[in-house]
Amino acid sequence: MKRLALLATITLTACTATQQDGLARDAAKQAVRPVLEERFPGIPVETATDCIIDNANAQEILALAADAVTGPTASTAEIVIRVASRPETIECIATDGLPAILSVL
Questions:
Q1: How many domains does the chain have?
Q2: pTM for the structure as a whole
């Protein structure tokens, strides 16, 4: 586990800021998905994940990315719920998630 974290750190330092942001966002998504599946069954997971990541601040993204390495914790769920509760995130899920829900009905 420590080797994986060290490798991730080395990889991130060799990237541009844009690449680092993309890697952190991709890693954060890995921590968000299981929380959404457990806490919000039936929600379109990919859409909701994108909305949460898009509305999380840099500190939240980094915390979620770190949780992707160690596995989701109570802190992960707290961050996901806090970001999901923001008006912008709710609007995003409602706007982008509704077509996904309707497509399976």
A1: 1
A2: 0.77
